[in-house]
Amino acid sequence: MPLFRSCFTTLAILGGTAFLVSCETDAPVARPPVTFTPPPAPSLSIPPTFLATDYQALANWLDERYEVEYRNLTPEMVFEQSPLNKIKYQTSRLPENAPVFHLRSSDISCREILYKVATFWDLDMTLLADENGTPAAVQVTGR
Questions:
Q1: Residue 99 falls inside a structural domain
Q2: Neighbours of 110 (CB within 10 A)
């Protein structure tokens, strides 16, 4: 009888342990996978007069879409970057010791890039025309 009692006690302890383990309250709950959709980037509200031109070749270039990645650019460096370096700039009173400019986009127009640059460093940008009225450069002036 003591052997029976000892075996019964052992089985009861093992069975109770197995039962309690199966009732674990911290067990992971099956949840559906979480998907993250980033919010859309805020659209730029570019004034219609910003670098407005009737010169079709320039208008096409300003509105053409590009992929860009700019890092650590100063006001002196930004206009040397592709695709902005396809036109001429006359700069004056650019801010000194200004914070560096970063931009990464897979779909942005030159007009949007220039507008971001202008607002970031508080610059005025206007088109300069040659003697025939053809746009010749963008005048960039710090305020």
A1: yes
A2: 21
Tokens standing for 97? 């010791």
Q: Examine residue 100 and state whether it is found in any structural domain, yes or no.
A: yes
Q: pTM for the full model?
A: 0.69
Q: Is residue 35 part of a domain?
A: no
- Pair 43, 112: CB distance under 8 Å: no
Question: From CA 112, how far away is CA 118, in angstroms rounded?
Answer: 10
Which is nearest to 118 in space by CA: 135, 139, 136? 139
* Total domain count, the chain: 1
The tens place of each residue's pLDDT in the chain, 143 residues long, gives 565 556 556 555 655 555 555 555 565 666 666 555 555 555 568 999 999 999 999 999 999 999 999 999 999 999 999 999 999 999 999 999 999 999 999 999 999 999 999 999 999 999 999 999 899 999 999 98
Are residues 133 and 104 in contact, defined by beta-carbon separation less than 8 angstroms? no
Domain harbouring 64, CATH code: 3.55.50
Please give the residue range of the domain that contains residue 122: 56-142
